[in-house]
Structures are given as structure tokens and as C-alpha cells.
Amino acid sequence: AVMLLGGALGALGALGWINFNRRDQSLMARLSRALNRQEVTLLYQPVVNVRDGKIVGAEALVRWQSNGDFVPPDVFTAIAEQKGMAGRISRYVFDRMIDEMAETLRLHEGFRITINIVAADLSDPKFFAALEDGLHHAGLTPHQIGIELTERSTADSTAAIEGIARLRARGHVVYIDDFGTGYSSLAYLGQLNVNVLKMDRAFTRTVGTDAVTVSIVPQIIDVAIKHNLDIVVEGIETEAQAEYFRNLPVPVMGQGWYYGKPVPAAKLIKLLEQQDGIVSSKRGPRKGLH
Ligand code: C2E
Ligand code: MG
Ligand code: MG
Ligand code: MG
């Protein structure tokens, strides 16, 4: 009886797996069509200097509605990664970002946009070729394009370390994303040789609430300073959090709902124009021209 039950459970489990796999398969087929039809879109979330709140960059975040339903990006990018399709998303996002933002990047020398990629891109010649072509055609320099990789995706991988070195040799700025949630030790950062550490919002969330976790925040900041990395604090949602990071002895960048949610390209451009003191032409004469 026990064996029968075990067998039945096994069969059910296998059936569940097949269904799950089929569901993923059809999701990827729909994603593939959506990419071909340019139905996948991007939003941009401002990254600010927390000391003065000025926008210094933005992160491109992918958005996809399948049959009217919003599919969370972390979900479909993870499945795409398993199915070997993530590289297509990375190249699509990069190309579309260049289409939408090249002009703005040319106008704002100090402004930088980051894209999220996966570990497999780091050893994919097609990815590197796409970066080079895109920048060349848009007349842009690589230092305005940041490449975000999660700490998890780089863990203990020589291929990742080499890929990061290659990106940096080409002049890109490399970010380690969601830092603090992966498996790697703080010491591993030295080997990775990235430019910017993005502290995961799990730590930001506890600022001002949980004394134990708050004590980790200064440690992460210290380690970033020790390795000569810039810092982006993710998920700043409240004034109290903003104040905490504003008052750190080192200037850090911040990203979060407190400063701005992800917005379409046109809206981001408007925000930058407002910051420059240029009023959108629809609303009257441009300041600075008169
Ligand atoms: P991520 O790269 O860490 O992106 C930051 C996520 O945090 C975004 O979620 C953003 O909307 C969200 N966020 C920003 N500020 C706040 C805040 O103050 N509070 C809260 N609760 N959330 C905030 P999103 O856009 O849903 O993306 C989720 C994840 O999906 C990303 O995490 C990234 O891992 C992945 N992803 C998004 N776009 C892409 C892409 O183009 N390619 C790849 N490979 N992955 C992507
Ligand atoms: Mg990211
Ligand atoms: Mg992140
Ligand atoms: Mg994340």
C-alpha cells in the first residue's frame, strides 16, 4: 500500500511537472511572439543622489502584458533564463532603451542608464556585439550604459569574472544588483571587480525598525567603500529612510518609490527637462533661451 501510494504520488508529481513545464513552454512561445512584435515595453526608474535628490541615472525595467495580464518581470525573466531565452530579452531591452533614450543620453553627459542582464550574457558574443553595434550607431560612449548583474548570478563563476572584466575593459560600468541577498561573502566582492554596489531593498526596508538588520547596513556601506565602489540604495520608500541615507558620512545614490516609481521614457525625459530648468515646449517658451 505504501509503495502504491508512493507510486501514485510520484505519478502526480511527474504530471505536475509536465504541466508546469508545458505552461512555461507556452509562456515562452508567447514571449517570443511579443518580442518579435515589439509588444514588450520598458519603464525607467530614476536613480538620484540622495543628498540633493537630483536624478543622475535610471534603471530600465522590462514590462510585458500577455493576453491583457501583467506578467511580473522577475517571473518571466527567470523562466526565460532556464529556457535559454534570457539573452534575447537582454538584447531587446538594450536595443529598445537605445531607441528611446539615445538622444537624452547624448544631451546629458553625466546621465547613465542601467540594464539588467543574466550570467549567460557574459559569455555570449551576440550580447557583446549588440552592445557595440547599438552604441556605435547611436554615437554613444559605453560609460553611460550600466550593466546590472545579480550577486546570485555571478556566484563562484570564473566565466562571470571574465565577462565582467570584458565589460569594464570596453568602458561599461558594472553594477552588482540585489547585493546582500546572494550567497557570496563580502570578501568575494574584491574578485568580482565591479564599479557599483546596489544594496538590496531588504536592508533598506528595516532601516529605523529592526536594530539587528540596521547594523548590517553600515557593514555593507563599509565594504563598498573599502572596495572603492559607488553605492545605490534600493527600495527607499519613506522620508525616514531617505534621511538615514542622506546623513551617511559618504554620499550614496538612491532608488525607490520615495524618489519616483518606474515611468515611461517620455515621462523620464520630462523629469530631466524639469530638473534642467527647461520647461516643455508645449507649456511655453524654454527657459534659458530668452
Ligand atoms: P531589480 O533589478 O532589483 O529591479 C528593482 C525592482 O524593485 C523593480 O521591480 C522596481 O520596480 C522595484 N522597486 C523599485 N523601487 C521600489 C520601492 O521603493 N519599493 C519596492 N517594493 N519595490 C521597488 P520590477 O520592475 O518588478 O523588476 C523585478 C525584477 O525583475 C528586477 O529586480 C530584475 O531582477 C528583473 N528584471 C526587470 N527587468 C529586467 C530585464 O530587462 N532583464 C532582466 N534580466 N531582468 C529584469
Ligand atoms: Mg536591477
Ligand atoms: Mg535590484
Ligand atoms: Mg531585485
TrEMBL record:
It is an enzyme of class 3 (hydrolase). GO terms for cellular component: plasma membrane. Its EC number is 3.1.4.52. GO terms for molecular function: cyclic-guanylate-specific phosphodiesterase activity. Keywords: c-di-GMP, Cell membrane, Hydrolase, Membrane, Transmembrane, Transmembrane helix. Coiled coil: none annotated. It catalyses: 3',3'-c-di-GMP + H2O = 5'-phosphoguanylyl(3'->5')guanosine + H(+). The keyword Cell membrane applies. It is found in: Cell membrane. The keyword Transmembrane applies. It is a multi-pass membrane protein. This is cyclic-guanylate-specific phosphodiesterase. It comes from Phyllobacterium salinisoli. The chain holds residues 249 to 538 of 546 of the full protein.
